[in-house]
Amino acid sequence: MFSFLYFRYVFIILGGNDINTATTPATIAENLKTLVKEMKWCGIERVFFMSICQRGKFRDRSMTEVVYRKMKTSVNDKMRHFLKSDYVNGDMHIKYPQHFSGDGVHLNQSGLKKLKRVIFKTFKKTV
Asked: Does the reported pTM lie above 0.85?
């Protein structure tokens, strides 16, 4: 079992892999909330969550960009209300398609630099 004994803060970055037409935003958000609660129970002071960003390609063949956007927005809204100030709006910083590689899923170098700045800025606020 992984120990969180030495960590005060955790920054969760989620992709859109778990968003599919076989699950609901409520289920995804509840699973994430459980994860956050368990981390805090293990002694983590703060769990930061970066919103799920837009993406261009989907494993689920029945997923469309419109359905994905609605589902990710719903999950993000639920997490924003749950985490309050520990919620980080990734869509403000990381834009599709300019920060994504040609596969439409993973960040390119520019996107990774943006992500790094977001993480550093978030942790800097804790000092």
From this structure: yes
